[in-house]
Amino acid sequence: MKKIEAIIRTEKLEDVKRALSHMEQNHGMTVCQVLGFGKQHGFAELVRGQKVIPSLLSKVKIEMVVKDEEVEELVELIQVTSLTGEVGDGKIFISPIEDVIRIRTNERGQDAL
Ligand SMILES: Nc1ncnc2c1ncn2[C@@H]1O[C@H](COP(=O)(O)OP(=O)(O)OP(=O)(O)O)[C@@H](O)[C@H]1O
Ligand SMILES: [Mg+2]
């Protein structure tokens, strides 16, 4: 199993949810509002050598724990849906997940997703 953490533009969240709803398989997700900055330190244009305090921009973070074989399709869905081509489109992190427990049934691992 893998965890997909996608930090995207807030206004793209509805599009991602809609795209997910069209998939055959239903997936759970967690969404939170986050503050952060990337390479431009929160500014659209950075003058080389200029030193400014980074500016925290509001984004949305989507977390999904999925089967290994589902990662690529979901990453592509999130990427295509979240793309504008401008700086600040966001980032997707993928990390391994050791185990999952569905509290209600005590199922573990992939069966609990
Ligand atoms: N290396 C990182 N570690 C943790 N969070 C990050 C990292 N890079 C970006 N983020 C998060 O992702 C958000 C969007 O980043 P952003 O899309 O600006 O990345 P970027 O590398 O600057 O790419 P771009 O050049 O397309 O703007 C940031 O506001 C921050 O919350
Ligand atoms: Mg950036």
From TrEMBL:
This is Nitrogen regulatory protein P-II. The gene is gnlB. GO terms for cellular component: cytosol. It comes from Streptococcus varani. Belongs to the P(II) protein family. SMART domains: P-II. PANTHER family: NITROGEN REGULATORY PROTEIN P-II, NITROGEN REGULATORY PROTEIN P-II HOMOLOG. GO terms for biological process: regulation of nitrogen utilization. GO terms for molecular function: ATP binding; enzyme regulator activity. Pfam families: P-II (PF00543). It comes from the Bacteria.
